[in-house]
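Onboarding guide, step 5: your first structure request.
Type a short instruction followed by the sequence, for example:

Predict the 3D structure of this protein.
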Amino acid sequence: MKETEQPPPEAPPDVKRLVREQIDVVFLATSYPREVQVAPPRREVRGPGWTACVRAQLTSATGTPLGAQTHIVTISGGRVVDRRRAEEDDICGTETYEPI
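The system replies with structure tokens like these:
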């Protein structure tokens, strides 16, 4: 019986372009994301895709500034497929960010 071959790993995604094109997937449009910055992609440890930290200045639904908020996006097949707010134990606090 032949072992199942793993597909080749995805090339690192262009996080800046993906976030720019899919900003509404990363942040709610009503939060008016500004000063959006991204960190370099990292290979997803639990799957075949990539993750990256994304930070932006956001506004609440009532118009109150929320300040800088950081999310982790999961990228697979050249698309943002998931996102969640970064937590204290995530690597996002030590990442180097660049504007999109």
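Each response can be followed by summary notes, for example: The chain has one domain: 15-86.
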